[in-house]
Write a structure and sequence with these properties.
This protein has one domain. It is built from nine helices and no strands. Helix 2 packs antiparallel against helix 6. It holds the Pfam family LysE.
């Protein structure tokens, strides 16, 4: 791998991550509902999902991914239902105080696996790693060190962009001090997650 190919890949991943999509929306929704810490767990799931597809592409398993196409459809359905359920929990959550601590709190597993599910069910991500990635690097000529570099590039660039979205979402959250406004915020965040889940199911 050359410096040019690494930078080209980093730029492509940056563009993939920064364009608003299901991953961005769910990250912002969690940041609005429960702050940066919970949103960062969603980001961890998104990054892990990206790394799974990266390794699938590197080790020549894109054919297997095609064979498991119906499995990915099932994942999209399950992921959509899961997001709708989480969004509903946020929607019905009533703020207990005006400091917004613990609002619409979900377990770390729920946050993490929601990020993982949204990545596995996102056709844009699948197309990038299994289709476009080979145009940036020669997957058949990669050494173990090259693979490590790719893993670091994906983790840093994708994680950095998504964490930035999470940070700004959490910053906006801190602006809400009124209980009524906070309740509306929960409705918006929950509604957004339910919408994302519904879109995943419709497009499955």
């Amino acid at each position: 791998m050359t410096i040019f190919s690494i930078l080209s890949l980093a730029g492509a991943i940056f563009l993939l991550a920064i364009i608003p999509g299901p991953g961005v929306f769910i990250t912002i929704s969690r940041a609005l509902a429960s702050g940066f810490k919970n949103a960062s767990l969603v980001v961890a799931g998104i990054v892990l999902g990206g790394l799974v597809f990266l390794l699938l592409a590197i080790y020549g398993l894109s054919t297997m991914a095609e064979i498991l196409g119906e499995f990915f459809v099932v994942v999209k359905y399950l992921g959509g239902v899961y997001l709708i359920w989480m969004g509903y929990k946020i929607w019905i959550e009533r703020p207990k105080n005006i400091n917004l601590e613990g609002v619409a709190e979900l377990s770390w597993k729920s946050n993490f696996f929601s990020g993982l599910a949204i990545t596995f069910g996102n056709p844009k991500v699948i197309l990038f790693y299994l289709g476009f990635l080979p145009t940036f690097v020669n997957l058949r000529a990669l050494s173990k060190f090259d693979v490590l570099i790719l893993v670091l590039v994906v983790s840093i660039v994708l994680g950095g962009v998504m964490l930035t979205y999470a940070y700004f979402g959490a910053s906006v959250k801190r602006l809400f001090k009124d209980e009524k406004i906070n309740r509306r915020k929960n409705c918006i965040a929950g509604g957004a997650m339910m919408t994302i889940g519904t879109v995943l199911i419709i497009k499955a």
